[in-house]
Amino acid sequence: MRRALPILVMTLVTTFGWWWCRVPGSGDWVNFPPAADGPWIAYGDSLTAGFGADKGNDYPTLLGKKLGIQIRNFGVSGNTTHDGLARIDQALAVKPKVVLLCLGGNDSLRNLPKDQTFANLSQMIDRFHGVGSFVVLVGVRSASLRDKNADRFEALAREKKVMLIPNILEGVLFNSSLMSDTIHPNSQGYEKVAERLFVLLAPLLAQLNAARE
Questions:
Q1: Which of 68, 164, 177, 204 has a CA positioned 20 to 30 A from the CA of residue 28?
Q2: Is residue 179 a contact partner of residue 173, using CB atoms and an 8 Å limit?
Q3: Domain residue spans in the chain?
Q4: Residues 120-160: pLDDT tens digits?
Q5: Other beta carbons within 10 Å of 213
Q6: How far is CA 184 from the centre of its chain?
Q7: Strand pairing partners for 141?
Q8: Assigned fold of 32-208
Q9: What angle do CA 20, 24, 26 make, to 5 degrees?
Q10: From CA 97, how far away is CA 82, in angstroms rounded?
Q11: pLDDT digit string, tens, across residues 67-124
Q12: Using CB atoms within 10 A of its CB, is residue 83 exposed (0-12), middle (13-18) or buried (19+)?
């Protein structure tokens, strides 16, 4: 019975993760399965680069270890969505199979127009779709008492038919033991981020592997 319990727990976690991913309209996701055959990549700013954590404790590295794959880190600290759009060719060149797209935090901190932020994100999604990538849009909370980004991320995900993971710092932000400063997690915080993303993305990886067989 003791041996069966961990298997049951893992089955429930995987099932819950797949149920969570299968939001209305998910059957219409673009490039599922992806036509591109390159690596998984994480494309973003300091939250992707792992600012505030010890070396090797950025969320793409930790998540990749949990999934049993390598996730290339294309995070650049300080990037806005404009910066991300300007350097996107280097990411397109590897023809990524799956893209974890997480940008917008610095736009909010600098009080840049939201219409431009989400227009930039829209263009990036289109560019990745153009090379056959499956895009996972990772939401970022706005720098305000009330999250003013959540509805915009949801609307963009529906419009572009991509998978959405809301608010990358859910359960981490405002917890001082998990943060290196008011914006960035510490190593333990990025571990929490990776754990949450693993639950949501492990079923996706299983589906992609099944589709390849």
A1: 68
A2: yes
A3: 32-208
A4: 999 999 999 999 999 999 999 988 878 989 999 999 999 99
A5: 4
A6: 15
A7: none
A8: Rossmann fold (3.40.50)
A9: 75
A10: 23
A11: 999 999 999 999 999 999 999 999 999 999 999 999 999 999 999 999 999 999 999 9
A12: middle
How far is residue 51 CA from its own chain's centroid?
16
Six-digit token pair at 213?
A: 């067989």
Cβ burial of 181 (10 Å; 0-12, 13-18, 19+) is: exposed
> What token pair was written down for 212?
């390849």
- Tokens matching residue 52: 């505030």
Q: How far apart are CA 50 and CA 47, in angstroms?
A: 5
| Residue 21 CB contacts under 8 Å (≥ 6 apart), including other chains | 163, 200, 201, 203, 204
Angle 180-153-142 (CA atoms, 0-180°, nearest 5)? 40
SS (H, E, C) the chain: CCCHHHHHHHHHHHHHHHHHHCCCCHHHCCCCCCCCCCCEEEEECHHHHCCCCCCCCCHHHHHHHHHCCCEEEEECCCCCHHHHHHCHHHHHCCCCCEEEEECCHHHHHCCCCHHHHHHHHHHHHHHHHHCCCEEEEECCCCCCCCCCCHHHHHHHHHHHCCEEECCCCCCCCCCHHHECCCCCECHHHHHHHHHHHHHHHHHHHHHHHHHHC
